[in-house]
């Protein structure tokens, strides 16, 4: 079934950090972007009838803040050398990143209709060889931060001032490679590296706290020598203040923004769904989800 909901029209794209823009305007821009991106995710999810839609809805505020307020990029030239690099370690969050790339103008909104289709540039798990703006192929958890460390080192050696952002999950904090990379980043004083950690408390085997809790997460990152800020990742004003505080940290220290998010955020029906890691949504529920996102039929 083709999506029946229209996505709100996006304003002109921005391609540079907006720290000189009034704070209220930044909040408004990011909030509106996140809303559009959630619509994009629902429309893509409907094409498959299932997928990681809960995680996508939950992390959209973080991605909207990144792409509409923080990252430097050129929509018409995704491989521009001066761009900030955004690495999606959590490959199954690709549906969320595609929505962000569409909001950024790197991928056409119309192309989102091809999500998960044969020979599409938008496969269900992120593949750098297919998708413009996709820096790495996601998949095995715990591999994103090591790649980000190497990338940040390489940029510094060549004198490139670009930043490297790596989005990883709380489940990846159970991987030893993540902490080896964290230790290396601190040792090499990679102030050009930012880790964004989506803490939604859910993984394939169940609630993260019952599988293998990483708490106290802030203490662990600080013990590895990182400048750390923790925030409600679904509170846009708090999120933007957290980004500002993060970049105000020591210049030669890697930075970690720990974002507590809600799976299915914005759609109460999906927020309350018990089996939410890989979510199946009935055909008639997609329009209900869009209506709830827009504040109708809650």
From TrEMBL:
Keyword terms: Thiamine pyrophosphate
Region (Disordered): 1-21
The keyword Aminoacyl-tRNA synthetase belongs to this UniProt entry's keyword annotation: no
Gene Ontology molecular functions: magnesium ion binding
Cofactor: thiamine diphosphate
Domain Transketolase N-terminal: 33-293
A Pfam family the protein falls into: Transketolase_N
Family statement: Belongs to the transketolase family.
Protein's name according to its UniProt entry: Transketolase, beta subunit
Source organism of this protein record: Saccharomonospora cyanea NA-134
